[in-house]
Amino acid sequence: MEEHTALPFFILNTMRKHYFLLFLSLSFGNLFAQNSGYWQQHVDYKMDVTMDVKNYQYKGKQQLVYTNNSSDTLKKVYYHLFNNAFQPGSEMDARIQSIKDPDARMVNKTKVDGKDIKESRIKNLKINEIGYLKILNFKQDGVNASAKTVGTILEVTLAKPILPNSKTTFTLDFDGQVPVQIRRSGRNNVEGVELSMAQWYPKIAEFDPEGWHADPYIAREFHGVWGNFNVNITIDKDYVLGGSGYLQNPNEIGHGYQDAGVTVVYPKKAKTLTWHFNAPMVHDFTWAADKNYDHDVVKGPNNVDLHFIYKNTPAVVENWKKLQPLMVAVMAYYNKTVGDYPYKQYSFIQAGDGGMEYAMCTLMLGNGKLEGILGTAAHELGHSWFQHILASNESKHPWMDEGFTTYIEDLALNELATKKEENPFKGNYGAYYKLVESGKEQPQTTHGDRYDENRPYSISSYVKGSIFLSQLGYVIGQENLNKTVKKYYQDFKFKHPTPNDIKRTAERVSGAELDWYLIDWTETLNTIDYGIASVQENANKTNVTLERIGRMPMPIDVLVEYTDGTKESFYIPLRMMSFEKENPTPAIPRTVLKDWAWAYPTFEFSISKPKTAIKKITIDPSGLMADVKQSNNVYELK
Length: 638
Ligand SMILES: [Zn+2]
Known about the structure:
This protein is α+β, with helices and mostly antiparallel strands. Helices cover 26% and strands 31% of the residues. The strands form eight sheets. Strands 7-6-10-2-1-16-19-18 form an eight-stranded mixed sheet. The longest helix has 24 residues, at 314-337. The protein is elongated and about 95 Å long. Residues 1, 379, 383, 402, 405 line the site of zinc ion.
């Protein structure tokens, strides 16, 4: 995930606990009944961590119960050691130094002989500034296992293989150092937040039906194992924490977490507090800490606690207070549009860089204008659905989480806006057309780390991914799209959906065949270009010839506006879809023409009025079909 600072155009545009677990087991029963061939691994983490706030070093013990639900016998397992990316000479460092458009946050700009030189910030980190995660005493069921650190990955050769449908327990000790803030995690970010603890612990890599996903940490995107986290964090008592999971000892901790009316009395002479968090059914655990945080709790929809944790400086306080009712509204909108947020808590935490989604929380920058903060907060909250509940593999399919999040974010921000746009996605289409024009586009099947440049990655993931949905509304009709989004959520929440799952859901809802849509849009660089080739009068009628210039097929809506002010529309179904869309604009009478099979380069139809009566003919008046050449979509009477 990237975020709004890098992509300004997005802005333009306890009983409790038990109830929750019951809810989860019920929903899991349903989902396995529905999809019996599906399996996913399961993890139960228990971690005890002590943070030294003077030297930014931490020590931890981790116990991980790993359940192998696959039919494979596993002889090795892999862990991510993300902190190791923040060392001179790491793959991340090498990538910053070689990519043409490095992330501005990760470089220092200097002028040499009048020329701008960008230098990797990782390259110059000193030994007490780097990040690391050192693993000691790795054991499997109490027996030593060989664990080798290779860059940001820990390769473990197991003491004994894990058989299908069995459990094993891994234990290890870790020594960590929080790096100087370079990207996402780190100490003392640009807004002075002391600890942004993302990607901070040894995290087992996901093994799914496609195999292992032990991707090195180079730049972006994650994939994790579903499970439960039980985490104790011991830290200087003056620090306020926010993060994934429910605080289990709020009345010992205070700092805004205590129950109403409770006065927290700390043990005399105590220098530290131990914060105990439980995060059920998540695939990551993140936290942040600072001495100068304010902390508000606001009731959101369905009684969800929305925590706002932000620096106590006046400008920040003012904006973050205004943000609170807005985020209640945004959450209500996402609940309505996708499905109810399933946890009882979500935290907006000022930390990190830009904005980044985590389980039950976001770390985001908090200075600046309200408009910017709102855009970031709406985007990151959206990721709760599209990544932290519908956990597609972000590394392989960044368009699924970034694109779908951008889609609902644009809808939500338009809903909140005083001046509503008829097409809130207009900016996305423009950005996509520019990418195609640049010649720098790579197919969406490209792994997130393997894009040549950052910008094409961003447009392809956020923008083209968002258009996947907004354009699907054009293809199968808006109502079918709305149902598809909801059904996708209901069928695949707490799982790892793949591109085919969103396509099949749209097929199940609409009855249309959509293989072509998924293939052409996400696996190729094929583009859409339809045009009006000719408009000719023939015996008081007008013959219109359309042509398909681009490789990608599409069904076609045509709007005809007459000189007398009346309107008429024509719909040309796409033969390979075996589908007829409902009239998207029922107020305008529509004629459904014979279908257009892709291989035919042209299509002809007749309008029962003379040419002089026609003021304008428009292919796709909705603007939701991503036709890369708009100029040939319109005919106008001269
Ligand atoms: Zn995002």
